[in-house]
Amino acid sequence: MALYIDGFVTPVPKKNIAKYTAASKRAGKIMLKYGALEYVDCVADDVPDGKVTSFPMAVKLKKDEVVCFAYTIYKNRKHRDAVTKKAMHDPIFQDPDMMPFDGKRMIFGGFKRVVIAKKKG
Fold first, then answer.
1. Among 56, 63, 102, 118, which is most buried by a count of CB atoms within 10 Å?
2. What whole-number distance in Å separates Cα of residue 95 and Cα of residue 35?
């Protein structure tokens, strides 16, 4: 099965991590409700600063922020487009509490899966 992944890298103020996590849980439920296969959100634990490029540099991370990385999995791009269209019209995504971060510095995009390696057994 060819899967399609939307990825997001977001700078979140450390003081807003609880709000961000709550909003992310809500977003995940909505994405699954409209057909996404999986929704995952993560808070940086080992994300070093780079000399040329890095996650912190990419989002212009400030001292009081942490990088969050999320992804949503779909069957294919057509499926992603249909799910996202429905989800973005859901009233939950109109709630200002859904973005306790600077959305202008969020990086996002859709990706075709080309390789997957899994441990058998």
1. 56
2. 21
**Any idea where the domains of the chain sit in the sequence?**
4-73+83-112
* Type of residue at 59: V
* 16 Cβ contact list (under 8 Å, min separation 6): 100, 101
Architecture of the domain spanning 4-73+83-112: 2-Layer Sandwich (3.30)
Q: What is the 3-state secondary structure (H, E, C) of 25-60?
A: HHHHHHHHHCCCCEEEEEECCCCCCCCCCCHHHHCC
DSSP H or E stretch at residue 94 = none
pLDDT (average), residues 28-48: 97
**Mean pLDDT confidence for 39-44:** 98
